[in-house]
Known about the structure:
The protein contains three helices and no strands. By secondary structure, the protein is mostly helical. The relative contact order is 0.13.
Amino acid sequence: GVLVEVSRRMQECARAGDWEAVSHLQEKSLQLAGQLFADAIPAAEAQAVTEAVNEVLKINKRVVDMGVEARDGCLDKMDQLQQSRRAVKEYTANTG
């Protein structure tokens, strides 16, 4: 239901690189999960709840993987920037 929908929106925001929205949706997801498990789940709904939870876990893993990739990409860019700065400094020092 709603929990799966929030997770899917979180995944869309992660794909778009909107990590602020991902963080906000993650909080909402935790609230919804807390509400879902606050009361005993009727046996008739147990299968559906299990499937929904498994779907949410799969989506969350994808979101985490995207976050790791984005972070690694940022670190690579920062590393390249530092190397460029070093090269400019050395060039300037040698030509000055």
